[in-house]
UniProtKB/TrEMBL annotation:
Identification of the protein by name: Hydroxylysine kinase
PANTHER family for this protein: AMINOGLYCOSIDE PHOSPHOTRANSFERASE DOMAIN-CONTAINING PROTEIN-RELATED, HYDROXYLYSINE KINASE
Functional description taken from the UniProt entry: Catalyzes the GTP-dependent phosphorylation of 5-hydroxy-L-lysine.
Organism of origin: Stegodyphus mimosarum
Family annotation (Pfam families): APH
Location of this chain's protein in the cell: Cytoplasm
All residue ranges annotated as the Aminoglycoside phosphotransferase domain in the record: 53-285
Domain of life from the UniProt record: Eukaryota
Catalytic reactions of this protein: (5R)-5-hydroxy-L-lysine + GTP = (5R)-5-phosphooxy-L-lysine + GDP + H(+)
C-alpha cells in the first residue's frame, strides 16, 4: 500500500481540472491511509452537474494505491452514501466530475511505504464529497446522553441500510472484519509479554465464541468502522442558560462497509465508545451506547451474547495493528491513538464475565 503525496498546489489544480472548481481556501486533513483536503470554492465554477456550491465546502480525497486498485471500490462506496442520504441520514455525498462520473484515476506522486518522500508516481482514485460540518465525537466529553445518541445513530444506520442492494458489496473483502481477527497473531512481534498474553487469551476463545456462533447471527451491509473520529456532533449553545449540549448526527468514512453481522458493527462501536470514557465508567458507557441502539432496534439473545467478544476482538485488532504500524513508521502518532487507554479497556472487558456484563447493561436500559 502506497499513500499519495499530493501538495496543496497540486490538489488545487486537480479540483479545477477534474471538477471545474476554483479553490479559494484549502486545508490538509488527517488521514490514516489516504490524503484528504478540505476545500472551499468560488461560486463561479465550470461543472454542469453542480447547481450551487456547498457552503461548508468539500472534501477532496486522493485514495491510496491498494484501495484504488480494488474493483468497484468507489462505486460501492458512493452508492452506499447516496442511499443513506436519501434515507435522511447526514452523510457526505459524492459529486460528479466534468466527465459525469463520481471518481477518476489520476497519476499522482506517492510516499514510500515507510511514508518517506519518493519520486514514484502511480494512478490513484480521486473523488470529491460534500463536507459535513460538526466536530468528531472524540473531541467532546462523553456523557451518558452522548453515548446513548451514538448508539441510536448506529441503529438508524442499520435501519436505513436494510433495503440497500449491491451485488458487488457481498464480495468485498475488508481486512478489519471479524473473520480476519485471528490473523493479528502474525503482527504481534513488537508487543511485550503481558500484552501479547492478553491478546492471545482473546484469540484462544475465538473458535468457541465466534466461529461456532457467527453463522447464525443476522447480517447486513455494516459500516465497519463506527469509531469516534467517524461520528460528528453539532454543538448547541443555549444563550439564556449559558449551557452547551450536543446532537450526534453525522457519519463519515464508508471505506470499510461490507457484509457482516450487526453484532460486529455494534461491538466495534461499543469498543470505541469505551476508549475515552472519563466521567462515565467505560463498561457502563458501553451500556449507555447499547441502550441508545436498543431504543430503536432490538437484538436477539445470540447477538447480545456476542457483543463482549466482539468488543474484545476489535480492541485487539486496533491495538495490535496500531502498534505494528507505528513500529513501521514512528512519525505517525495518529495510528496509535487508541493505545492511550485501549490496553486498560481490553483488560476490563476480559476481566468481566459475559453474564455479569449483560446484567450490568440490563440495569442501564
Amino acid at each position: 500500500m502506497r499513500k499519495p503525496n499530493v501538495s496543496e498546489n497540486l490538489a488545487i489544480e486537480l479540483a479545477f481540472r477534474i471538477y471545474g472548481l476554483k479553490v479559494n481556501t484549502i486545508k490538509k486533513m488527517v488521514s490514516y491511509d489516504d490524503q484528504n483536503f478540505h476545500i472551499f470554492v468560488s461560486n463561479e465554477h465550470y461543472n454542469p452537474y453542480i447547481e450551487s456550491t456547498a457552503e461548508d465546502g468539500y472534501t477532496l480525497k486522493i485514495t491510496n494505491t491498494t484501495r484504488s486498485a480494488e474493483p468497484d471500490h468507489f462505486d460501492i462506496m458512493h452508492s452506499t452514501m447516496n442511499h443513506l442520504n436519501l434515507k435522511g441520514l447526514r452523510v457526505p455525498v459524492p459529486i460528479k466530475n466534468l466527465e459525469g462520473n463520481t471518481w477518476k484515476m489520476e497519476v499522482v506522486p506517492l510516499l514510500n511505504e515507510d511514508e518517506s518522500n519518493s519520486s514514484d508516481k502511480r494512478e490513484c482514485g480521486i473523488h470529491l464529497l460534500t463536507f459535513i460540518s460538526g466536530v468528531p465525537i472524540s473531541t467532546v466529553t462523553y456523557t451518558s446522553d452522548l453515548l446513548f445518541q451514538w448508539g441510536a445513530l448506529l441503529a438508524r444506520y442499520h435501519d436505513a441500510i436494510q433495503d440497500f442492494r449491491c451485488e458487488a458489496l457481498y464480495k468485498k473483502k475488508v481486512f478489519w472484519n471479524l473473520e480476519h481477527v485471528p490473523e493479528i497473531e502474525n503482527f504481534m512481534d513488537g508487543l511485550d509479554e503481558q500484552k501479547k498474553n492478553l491478546v492471545l487469551s482473546v484469540l484462544k476463545k475465538y473458535p468457541e465464541e465466534i466461529t461456532k456462533n457467527i453463522g447464525n447471527a443476522p447480517k447486513c451491509f455494516i459500516h465497519g468502522d463506527f469509531n469516534e473520529n467517524n461520528i460528528l456532533v453539532q454543538i448547541i449553545k443555549n444563550e439564556s442558560s449559558d449551557c452547551t449540549s450536543y446532537s450526534v448526527d453525522g457519519i463519515l468514512d464508508f471505506e470499510d462497509v461490507h457484509y457482516s453481522t450487526y453484532a460486529w458493527d455494534i461491538g466495534v462501536m461499543l469498543a470505541y465508545a469505551m476508549l475515552d470514557c472519563k466521567i462515565v465508567d467505560p463498561l457502563e458507557g458501553a451500556g449507555h451506547a447499547l441502550a441508545g441502539y436498543l431504543s430503536i432496534r432490538s437484538l436477539s439473545g445470540l447477538e447480545l451474547s456476542l457483543l463482549r467478544m466482539c468488543i474484545a476482538c476489535r480492541l485487539c485488532q486496533s491495538l495490535v495493528l496500531g502498534a505494528y504500524s507505528y513500529k513501521q513508521d514512528p512519525r505517525n502518532s495518529y495510528i496509535i491513538i487508541s493505545a492511550k487507554s485501549g490496553w486498560n479497556r481490553l483488560e476490563q472487558i476480559c476481566n468481566i464475565s459475559n453474564e455479569d456484563l449483560l446484567n450490568l447493561w440490563k440495569k442501564i436500559q
